[in-house]
Amino acid sequence: MSVFPKIFLRPEVENYLKEGFMNKEQFNGLSVPILQHPDLQDVLLIPVIGPRKSIKKQQCEAIVGAQCGQAVLRGAHVYVPGIVSASKFMKAGDIISVYSDIKGKCKKGAKEFDGTKIFLGNGISNLSRKEIFNGLPELKGIGITMTEPVYLSPSFDNVLPHYLFLQNLPSALVAHVLNPQPGEKILDLCAAPGGKATHIAALMHDQGDVIALDKIFNKVEKLKQNALFLGLNSIRAFCFDGTKAVKLDMIEDTEGAPPFLPESFDRILLDAPCSGMGQRPNMACTWTLKEVTSYQPLQRKLFTVAVQLLKPGGVLVYSTCTITLAENEEQVAWALTTFPCLQLQSQEPHIGGEGMMGTGLSCEQLKQLQRFDPSAVPLQETDIDSLREARTEDMMLLANKDCIGFFIAKFVKCKST
């Protein structure tokens, strides 16, 4: 679990956050530090407290799925659809222990479960077992309010949606590496749910044109909603397959909608679909070898489109939230060989580690990459006392390292293709 997984844009809301957290029942009046990142002035970080080993487990239990368990570790309460089983005597108002079924073996509606499970903390049931498993599909909402989570990570459901966007640290870094300027035309090729696209627009002071593409309709609608909440008018989102975003035989522009003419954009972000092996927390490994190896060819299709759409002198940033060589450094080596018009560029700010050896890139080229490797930091317990005693410099150093697995490469296009 990342010590600093909570990242926010627009630091002027710091006082609102402090007031909100102290009033949450999980925090019981604790004053949790909110830190401004020294290299990213629009980013605030909130430490996560845990794992808390002194929580007393209850006789009454509820089992949730792995996806729900991951959300709880990041500060969420338990919603009814995520509850897989509950003790036969569970009533509304009971204090219960919540566990995650990480192997997916628990049967829906079971009264007990002896399989592999991970303790997530204690909470108060808002419904009885009978109400939860009465067969009504429309039953939604919070089923269990987490009052003693193992990791004290605040929930941000509907918290200042007009001022904040929740991101992991490397995700917030990407837009700064792209360095968009007011008045430019920017393309976010795989944009949903919109964290990076909205950040790009904010860095441009909402002056310019940010085109955001994603091929899943519901995700595009969510992106539009996020832009609306944040009051950003420069973003235009389209439900469109990024691999088909360039139209080589087109004579006239399609009035700003995809597909686009070649060399139409000043800067392009390709936050590529990937195996997601850097995501944290991750309580269940569901990847198959076939699935993992399927991403490299898709990434190369998207990368080729990005190069075609980029203006000479333009900047292309490639990023993933995975840790494999095949999807990261190997893609950089392929790109430099396949597209002689591209040059690898150094990145600012540079807060991650350098790239990994093994793909033929030089030591100098590896230093121009940013790789975030959570395995480089040993798991350690963080409590409120240690946070109060820690130096800000040490906390920032840890924040830069103990995050999700992530990769960033920056290119400039030196001439037309």
Descriptive overview:
Strands 10, 11, 12, 13, 14, 15, 16 and 17 form an eight-stranded mixed sheet that branches. A six-stranded mixed sheet has the order 5-9-8-7-4-6. A three-stranded antiparallel sheet has the order 1-3-2, with no helix packed on it. The longest helix is centred in the C-terminal third of the chain and has 15 residues, at 295-309. It is an alpha/beta fold and 417 residues long. Helix 4 packs across helix 5 (195-203). It has twelve helices and 17 strands. The chain folds into three domains: 2-46, no CATH class; 61-149, PUA domain (Archaeosine Trna-guanine Transglycosylase, Chain: A, domain 4); 169-413, Vaccinia Virus protein VP39 (Rossmann fold), CATH 3.40.50. The chain is 25% helix and 22% strand. The two termini are 44 Å apart. It is globular. S-adenosyl-L-methionine binds at residues 190-196, 214, 241, 271. Belongs to the class I-like SAM-binding methyltransferase superfamily. RsmB/NOP family. GO terms for molecular function: RNA binding; RNA methyltransferase activity; S-adenosylmethionine-dependent methyltransferase activity. Keywords: Methyltransferase, RNA-binding, S-adenosyl-L-methionine, Transferase. Residues 89-414 form the SAM-dependent MTase RsmB/NOP-type domain.
Care to give the gist of this entry?
The active site is at 321 (nucleophile). The chain has 417 residues and is an alpha/beta fold. The protein has helices at residues 14-23, 66-73, 129-132, 169-178, 195-203, 217-229, 289-293, 295-309, 329-338, 363-367, 384-389, 392-401, and strands at 6-9, 35-36, 43-46, 61-65, 78-79, 83-86, 95-101, 117-125, 142-149, 185-188, 209-214, 235-239, 265-271, 310-320, 342-345, 370-372, 406-413.
